[in-house]
Q: What sequence folds into this?
């Protein structure tokens, strides 16, 4: 059940949605290699700037993912409400013998 997974802290969309995604895995490997190359070729000061840029980029990505998840979840709930309202109207109409 979803409620049980939420209670146990097992529902983690941001962590579970990348399993088996080869494109994501490959991009991660390429980033690791690029960072190694940068560490070998840049001064400590320049690398510190790269690290700061990466931190800020991760904050932006996290915020965008969080907002997208919340919007999608809300849209899904609204869709469910709309469908239930349509079904409720049909049941009410059928109960009154009107089609």
A:
């Amino acid at each position: 059940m979803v409620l049980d997974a939420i209670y146990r802290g097992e529902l983690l969309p941001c962590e579970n949605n990348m399993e088996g995604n080869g494109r994501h895995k490959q991009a991660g490997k390429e980033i690791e290699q690029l960072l190694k190359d940068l560490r070998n070729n840049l001064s400590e000061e320049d690398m510190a700037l790269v690290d700061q840029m990466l931190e800020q980029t991760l904050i932006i990505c996290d915020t965008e993912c969080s907002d997208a998840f919340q919007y999608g979840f809300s849209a899904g709930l609204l869709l469910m409400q709309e469908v239930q309202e349509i079904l409720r109207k049909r049941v009410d109409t059928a109960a009154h013998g009107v089609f």
Summary: Residues 44-95 form the longest helix (52 residues). The chain has a mean pLDDT of 89.
